[in-house]
Amino acid sequence: MDNNKVPCDDIEVEICKTKKEPSNKSRTSFAQELMKDEAELRYIKDKDDEDFKQKVDDMIEEIGKLDVLHTKLDDIDGGLNNEDDLDKVDVCSKCGEEIIESALVVGEDNYHEECFTCDHCGDSLTGKFYQVGDQKYCEADQEIGLDRCSVCSDYLRSGCVLVGGSSYHPQCFACSECDLPILDKFYTTEEGRWLCEEHYRLTKPKCHVCHLPVMERMLTAMDRQFHPACFTCSVCSAVLDGKPFMAEGEVIHCRECYAKFKAAQCYRCEQAIVSTVGKRMTLITCDGKNYHYQCYSCKRCDKNLNGKQVFIDGDDVACGDCKLQKTK
Hints:
This protein is of the alpha+beta class. The chain is 30% helix and 17% strand.
């Protein structure tokens, strides 16, 4: 048996023993390093995961903003993608036929090129045109659809004045007296003439008091015309519009002032002899004295003396019977 040779069992054991110690040490060290590396990798991974998650959240937020913006754009442009609009066919506003190729758009109306023509001469309106109501005219026939002035019969090319269903040039609508254009208030006479306010005033009656024209409401009394505010009492200046008044010649009084200052006073009752509304007052004069009808009676028997023989008894009146009895 060779001394250099070792039995297989011993060799394996020896080899295993001799290799086991350094192997355990190496594995332990490797395992520790591996765990350390794994911990570092896990820290890096966790950090990377947080950054990644933040980036994902930021991307989701940006995508959300883009979705909102896209939605708004869809709302604005939604009409352009509407299937009904895509299928809509333009129809000529004149002939009512479908427009296959190019169309002339005038306001909200569409026309075939050959249909957009002057409503008077039929020429194509390829250039400047004029519209009067629903009618369209070429430049040569622009005045055909215009109204005419009721005074001069010329066309009304610019502004006009409409009065009573008739149209006029502003310079033709003038006062019949001064021939100046009427720019403000005007009046029509019974003959159909127009008058400016100044000349209309000259046609109105003048107030008997202030001598100015009575333009609106007029009060007539004693065959004279007054402004209601000018018809006043000559004493107290009270306005007598709608109130009873007393006249002494051309002088006007209210009833109170007339009774106090102007009316005759009854000799018997010493009250003013003044008529009242709806009741006339009879004034009786005898021997220079004034009496009410009911006060004109015998001072002794109180018999009314109207239409009877009257005797003077001192400073008053008496009937014949009382006078005779007094003389006996």
